[in-house]
Amino acid sequence: MADTYKITLASKREKSVLRRHPWVFSRAIAQVDGTPKVGDTVEVYAKNGQWLARAAYSPHSQIRARIWTFDQDESIDQAFFAKRINRAYQAKQQVVTNSNAYRLIAGESDGLPGLTIDLYNNILVCQFLAAGVEKHKTDIVAALEQIFSDLAIYERSDVDVRQKEGLKPTSGWLKPGPNTSTWINEAGNQILVDVEQGHKTGFYLDQRDNRLIAAEYCKGQQVLNCFSYTGTFGLHALTAGAKHVTNLDVSQLALDTSAKIYQHNQLNEKQYTHLNADVFKQLRQYKQQGKEFDCIILDPPKFAENKGQVIRACRGYKDINMLALQILRPGGVLLTFSCSGLIGADLFQKVVADAALDAKVEAHIIEKLTQAKDHSVLLNYPEGFYLKGLVVQKR
């Protein structure tokens, strides 16, 4: 029989758990009974002895326990994971109708803290980011094989955040497939995804809905797609009728993949350019040259990984938005994004407003954007919201 471990919260620290927030921080714990190891299941109690939840213990992290369930009768086993994955699977199929690629499990928001699973056509890609899901990896993979018997499973747990959980980075096949690359369909366009070498799990599914929104603004326009990665904002822009798209990125591998995607979709080579350059430097060069665009897309990587980087991140966001607004034609549209969870929506809007002031332009928000529907945010876990975007028109 497995050992039973118990953590007791300090007085009045049970409020967030009663509100069903899935995290228990180290400073909230008054006592630990037994010696739970990395990922072990612990029973969470209030100071008055009330049972609150069942959680995964992480002795190395400030998030000391991540809650599996608030139901005392629910065991943490393969059946538990199969039930949670099935529930998410049904929900995601309802909200993603234009693609065979979507986020199946979004961690805490889908009831499986620290677990990310993306489905790309015939491959499931998993990230085990916390102690609990690492401990139960075998059960989780077995549950996936039970539900998706015909899909390959690849692991991309090669991320720094695992260090906070006392875990080493790892990647590779969990259930081998024929290839680490696959073609996905997104609103009629075919996109090549490399789950082994691509960013994150191979692709940015969270921008799916925004790519289609952006395409509408790009019709008949000269478009600059910054931090373009494999060029999918530009792909949708061209198929929607953009005059010309310039994809700008520092990764030649990403640009080469983008070129393959454009050729595969039979796009006119005269209507697009792939440019390997630093976005900050290239925007300044365009400004010096007096070059302008009708539509500019800014989709940078995460600028703030921790609270200590927020001020520096804001400077970066302000700089690129100021430069973009300066080379945007009057009447033109800037679609600007931040995927830094530590940069709130209000702060991001303020940064873009300051950028417009420094650029000496009048700009209006005409639409606000967020992460795709399969990246839903659990109401009692607001930390699940991270991607915000503004559609700004220059007057």
Polypeptide structure, described:
- The structure is a single chain.
- Helix 8 (279-289) runs parallel beside helix 9 (310-326) and helix 9 (310-326) packs across helix 10.
- The protein is globular, with a radius of gyration of 23 Å.
- The chain has 395 residues and is of the alpha/beta class.
- It has helices spanning 15-18, 78-95, 131-135, 137-147, 208-218, 232-240, 252-264, 279-289, 310-326, 345-359, and strands at residues 5-9, 23-25, 29-33, 41-45, 51-57, 63-69, 101-106, 115-120, 123-128, 152-157, 170-175, 181-186, 189-194, 222-226, 244-249, 272-276, 293-298, 328-338, 363-370, 388-394.
- The longest helix has 18 residues, at 78-95.
- The chain has three domains: 5-69, PUA domain (Archaeosine Trna-guanine Transglycosylase, Chain: A, domain 4, Roll); 78-180, RNA methyltransferase domain (HRMD) like (Transcription Regulator spoIIAA, 2-Layer Sandwich); 204-394, Vaccinia Virus protein VP39 (Rossmann fold, 3-Layer(aba) Sandwich).
- The strands form four sheets. It has a seven-stranded mixed beta sheet with strand order 16-15-14-17-18-20-19, with helices on both faces. A six-stranded mixed beta sheet has the order 2-6-5-4-1-3.
- Its main location: cytoplasm.
- Residues 5-90 form the PUA domain.
- It comes from Catenovulum agarivorans DS-2.
- One of its GO terms (molecular function) is methyltransferase activity.
